[in-house]
């Protein structure tokens, strides 16, 4: 009697599925579609956000595993304060809960947590928890996870203009010396490189006041998947697509080769 064949399946690591020489250094994500995901399932909106936190975890883990250095997540915009009070409260509670729950994972994986936005607008509990996790993880160097909270790009740029005008007025700098690098140094993202890949879930194709300056040369990737359904394989798919794009930064194809 012949032996039955042994079938061996290999599960490729996330890194093995990608060209590790062409990884985006900075990925930013507009996590959209929590509400529609919930509605589709006959659930209330806040359950969509709760489920969305699982995708946050999965994406952070995947980025660390792949070797992405910077991940920025649009968690709450300046405009989101206008949502129903219960939804805003739930989002803030989810933030506190996630920070408390994930601090160990951040430490174990050497991930530094930072935040951008008008953080003083956050409820005290959320603000304090955020400061605590930022402080605890500040020396981690494997990856930076940045949460955009009460963030609006136009507000960020208005602040830069105000700060620079004051510096000119007080003779700290002269108007002629203002250049891109000075502007970069006054943005919330002063310690982050430009975005290489911007992902938006849920089928919407707009930027919604997110990192307008920082995405100048980012590759944009839109997927119909709702954020709570966004899994590691979807991230790999987005990075694969990024790796197939030719980034010319204004040059011609011939100049690149
Ligand atoms: C957009 O979906 C999502 C948000 C406004 C919030 C994103 C928040 C989370 C994923 C959970 C908390 C985050 C952290 C970092 C712990 P939407 O409500 O606009 O969906 P819709 O367009 O379908 O209504």
From TrEMBL:
It comes from the Bacteria. Gene3D superfamilies: Decaprenyl diphosphate synthase-like. Belongs to the UPP synthase family. Pfam families: Prenyltransf (PF01255). Substrate binds at residues 33-37, 45, 49, 77-79, 81, 83, 200, 206-208. Homodimer. Its cofactor is Mg(2+). Keywords: Magnesium, Metal-binding, Transferase. It is an enzyme of class 2 (transferase). GO terms for biological process: polyprenol biosynthetic process. Binds 2 magnesium ions per subunit. GO terms for molecular function: ditrans,polycis-polyprenyl diphosphate synthase [(2E,6E)-farnesyl diphosphate specific] activity; magnesium ion binding. This is Isoprenyl transferase. NCBIfam families: PRK14830.1, uppS. Catalyzes the condensation of isopentenyl diphosphate (IPP) with allylic pyrophosphates generating different type of terpenoids. The active site is at residues 32, 80. Mg(2+) binds at residues 32, 219. The lineage of its organism: Bacteria, Pseudomonadati, Bacteroidota, Flavobacteriia, Flavobacteriales. Its EC number is 2.5.1.-.
């Amino acid at each position: 009697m012949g032996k039955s064949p042994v079938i061996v399946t290999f599960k490729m690591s996330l890194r093995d599925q990608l060209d590790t020489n062409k990884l985006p250094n900075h990925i930013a994500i507009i996590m959209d579609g929590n509400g529609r995901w919930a509605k589709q399932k006959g659930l209330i909106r806040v359950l969509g956000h709760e489920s969305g936190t699982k995708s946050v975890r999965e994406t952070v883990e995947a980025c660390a595993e792949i070797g992405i250095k910077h991940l920025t997540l649009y968690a709450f915009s300046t405009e989101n304060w206008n949502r129903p009070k219960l939804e805003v409260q739930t989002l803030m509670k989810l933030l506190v809960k996630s920070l408390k729950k994930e601090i160990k994972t951040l430490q174990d994986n050497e991930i530094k947590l930072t935040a951008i936005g008008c953080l003083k607008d956050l409820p005290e509990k959320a603000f304090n928890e955020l400061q605590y996790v930022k402080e605890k993880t500040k020396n981690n160097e494997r990856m930076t996870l940045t949460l955009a909270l009460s963030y609006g790009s136009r507000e960020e740029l208005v602040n830069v203009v105000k700060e620079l005008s004051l510096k000119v007025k007080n003779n700290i700098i002269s108007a002629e010396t203002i250049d891109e690098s000075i502007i970069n140094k006054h943005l919330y993202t002063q310690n982050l490189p430009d975005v290489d890949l911007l992902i938006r879930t849920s089928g919407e194709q707009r930027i919604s006041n997110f990192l307008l300056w920082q995405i100048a040369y980012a590759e944009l990737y839109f997927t119909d998947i709702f954020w709570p359904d966004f899994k590691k394989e979807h991230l790999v798919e987005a990075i694969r697509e990024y790796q197939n794009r030719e980034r010319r930064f204004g040059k011609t194809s011939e100049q690149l080769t």
